[in-house]
Sequence to fold (365 residues):
Amino acid sequence: MIDRKFPDKKLLSIHQWSWDMQPRTYRVVRKVEETPNTTSVYLSSDGDAPLQPFRAGQHLLFRIPGIGERAYALSAFSPKPKTYRITVKHPGRGEETGRAADYWRRQAVNGDVLEACGPAGHFHLPEQLERPLVFITAGVGEAPLAAIAEELAVRAPRHQLRFFHSTVNGSTFALKGKLGSLRGDLPNATWRIWFDRPQPIDRKDKDFDQHGEIVLADLRAFLPDCDCDFYVCGSNGFVARVVAELNTMGIGSLRIHSEQLGRESDDIVDPDERDVLPPVEPRTVHFTRSGTSATWKPEHGTLLEFAEGLGLEASYSCRTGMCGKCAQKVLSGETAKVRETPAKPRPGHQLLCSNIPISDLEIDL
Ligand code: FES
Fold:
């Protein structure tokens, strides 16, 4: 089996992490089923030490018994937290899966103790709030952005905010109550909710504002101007599309902060939210140490997913480009990133969880 130990200090220096990566233990103290597909889990410190303050938008990296390590964004903010909350998307009732998110729905019970590193991550508000903020989110991406909006309500409640969220319909709008209460806390905020496939009971102009997907061209009327700080969070495909649309509106990368929630953190993936990979060609990938060669096609996903599909044991942890644990040496050929990655692999190495091949490849795995 792969040794999935938490990153040690040596790894931290290699990958230039700024996280406090010493694991702590946390106790599950409450679970709330927000929707049939979404559960919030509250965790307290398992011991006397108080919980560490954090920046809304940051993650905890959990070691989940029998499954491995998974990162989840904190979905509620307090300057002096007594509990941490994560909000996890999972299969509905009666649907079986062995994936990590189902652990939180079915197995985790009050009193359980888990190890986690963090909170950490770079997706959060800046120290100085200089420009209006625009949050654009889909699916469970609302969780970290709702927490960031809570932080804003504490730090600068009169700051200008545009909050745009899309979800399937009222049955998947997990943090509707939280966003509703934030409307009162942020008097200069504008809120727009999209339902992709509203149910008969979903009321337009009450439960949601627009039918369909978020199309940024439709949002210009709600944007004060383009000199805003944009925060984008959702599935990889959603984030890639929105960032590309922002770029076409002339908004540069310095103004765009994005967080992609990979499949492991979403767990279930709506067919309309599947990751969108760049249009690339089938390539031959040779994994030299294992002596395995196969043809990669776009539907195989990242190189990590491809290697796993071939039965190869590849180390990983976060699967989102944060920890650096999946880095492997590329002996020949070129790869392309499917997401921006805080982890910076050593020269000649690439993060398998965040790259696809754009030529034939030889990888030392
Ligand atoms: S698994 Fe963490 S960076 Fe790839």
